[in-house]
Each structure stands twice: as C-alpha cells, then as structure tokens.
Amino acid sequence: MPTPITFTFGDSRALCDELLTLIREGKKTATCGALTYFTEGGEDMPVVGRRDIALDWDGKPAIMIETVEVTIRRFCDVDEDFALAEGEDETLEGWRQGHQAYFERNGGFHPEMELVCERFRLVEDLQGAKP
C-alpha cells in the first residue's frame, strides 16, 4: 500500500472549509491541480489505491480519501462529467470560470494547460463519523 500524504484543499480557509463540506456531503468526488504543481512544485502525484489525509485550514486531519482514478488532460478538454464530480459548480462553464480564477491566483492559467485530474472516495471523516 502506498504511503499516505497530507495536503490541504483550496487556497483559503473559506475554500478549504467549503470543499471539505462538499466531500462530507458526497457532492465532491474529484479534484484537479495543474501538472506543474506536481512536476515543478514538488507535490506528490496522486496514486490509485493510496489513502491520503486532507487537513483543515488549521492543519488538523479532517478526512481520509482514497484515489480511484488519475488522468492527465488539458484544461480545455475537461468534460462536464468530471467538472460536475468536483461538486463546486452546477455547469461546465461555471467550473471553467471558477478554476480559471483559481489557477490565475496560483501560478498562471492557459486553456491548454495540463491538469492532474483525480477521482476519489471518502474513506473516513476524521473529525466525525465514518460515511
């Protein structure tokens, strides 16, 4: 079994709290990040079967997730199915707008930038009950 990593969703307390809530509610089962975060930024690539710990904004373990799928695709090639699995927007266009703004805040955006797209399942709420 691959060694788990710890990480934090989002780039602000409000976004982190929102994303953790969406996961706990079963509305968020996917996430993505710029491929450069993993190649140049030194973050660990997600690995199918690995269970990772998402921290809350204060650095406390919040949830455990298990990666079930990893693909690399260009931003412009993300489809509605994946965008809606992220649980943050109700349309592909809303997903595009929100994620473009996020990437612009965090290192830059290009419509053809490559993304690491991860699907996961909630294993355990570490601040509450098991799902």
UniProtKB/TrEMBL annotation:
Gene3D superfamilies according to UniProt: Sulfate adenylyltransferase
ASCH domain sequence ranges: 7-124
Pfam families, per the entry: ASCH (PF04266)
InterPro entries to which the protein is assigned, alphabetical: ASCH_domain, DUF984, PUA-like_sf
Descriptive protein name: ASCH domain-containing protein
Species lineage: Bacteria, Pseudomonadati, Pseudomonadota, Alphaproteobacteria, Rhodobacterales
